Amino acid sequence: MVESGAGKGRGEAADLRDGLARMESWIDGFPDQLRGAIARGREIGWPGAAAAPAARGLFLGGMGGSAMAGRLAALILQPDLRIPIVVQADPELPGWVDGSVSLGIASYSGETWEALALADAAAARGISPWIVASGGRLEAYPAAAARFHAEPGMQPRAALGWMLVPILLCWAASAGRAVAMEQELRAAADLLAGEADLWRAGRALPGRNPRELADRLAGQVPVLYAESEAERVLAIRWRCQFSENAKRFALENAFPELVHNEIEGWADLGRVCRAAVVRLEGTGILEPRLAPVLSAAESEWRRVGFEVVFVPSHGEGRMARILSQVLLGDRVSLELARRGGVDPVPVEAIQRLRRAVAGAGMRKQEER
């Protein structure tokens, strides 16, 4: 284990402590983000024009944490909607998206070039998208059908509550469940706040201690598995948070697809590195035929030398269980960063790539 600040100068150690404290406040503030976004939605009459009860489909475009908000909203609402939902992390607007589809575009910064490209593509087809952003050119997009202003000043991945709530309420309105959805969000916020209080007091529910989970993953490649393809978004969220907050590489997949292919590579992974399988419970609703598959997979993991970690979800109901796993994964990523002496706030590799892309764009304009 590397203690925070070990081997660093005083200035670097102070920056590390500040970064860890900032990220911790953002993560523990997730319940308040949910409450704040609900209150803002009421103030502005959201979803208003963004609601589309007669839509033949729901489409959301966004990248990173913004796309994550849409994917989680789709998972939460899956049993209630009778029309398809597509969440796309790509700048191309599919040909089937037209004025009969509810089109939303989410970008926390409001400056993601992929999101802006989607807005331009929508304008070219005469479609007025609804927008969720904390500022930037996207929020000011003149042809928007409706705008939700997220609270600025955070890292996009840490502003999930502000991005999730408006998407959920908009799509719930399409299913006639906006009021019920708001009630479920408030109940989930209370549940999450209670668990965060336990962690701050040095306590935890069984199997849900962020520090103990981080200790078990130390020195190993985390392999994150969801119990269904629909719930794969939970494993993706954990992987993304491990990468951005802890600067740790991780893998993810979902049952039952992985037993049709990836299972053949487990022995090779066991030969080249130490790995820990993290099986994430989701909604608690398991396809009965999957139970023997999961049991057989666990035997195979142990046979090739993987440590197996089962992480139960928490709460009653779909919303609570899903968001409890989101909050726990965020907290585990913070503890991994703390143990690695890593500042979780900066994303230097991402910034280097953005500068390189921006520089290439400027050079192309000059060549023209």
What pattern of helices and strands is seen along the backbone?
A: HHEHEEHEHEHHHEHEHEHEHH
Strand content: 5-15%
* Major sheet: 5 strands, parallel
Amino- and carboxy-terminal Cα gap: 53 Å
Number of β-strand runs: 9
What does this structure look like?
The chain is 51% helix and 12% strand. It has 368 residues and is α/β, with parallel strands linked by helices. The chain has two domains: 25-190, Rossmann fold (3-Layer(aba) Sandwich); 206-340, 3-Layer(aba) Sandwich (Rossmann fold), CATH 3.40.50. Strands 2-1-3-4-5 form a five-stranded parallel β-sheet, with helices on both faces. A four-stranded parallel β-sheet has the order 7-6-8-9, sandwiched between helices. The radius of gyration is 21 Å and the shape is globular. The termini are far apart. The relative contact order is 0.13.
List keywords for this structure.
368 residues; alpha/beta; Rossmann fold; four-stranded parallel β-sheet
Topology:
Layout: H1 10-28, H2 30-44, E1 57-61, H3 64-77, E2 85-88, E3 101-107, H4 113-124, E4 130-133, H5 136-139, E5 146-149, H6 160-174, H7 178-200, H8 210-217, E6 221-226, H9 232-246, E7 251-254, H10 266-272, E8 275-280, H11 291-303, E9 307-311, H12 318-340, H13 348-367
Helix pairs in contact: 1-12, 2-6, 2-7, 3-6, 3-9, 6-7, 7-12, 8-12, 9-12
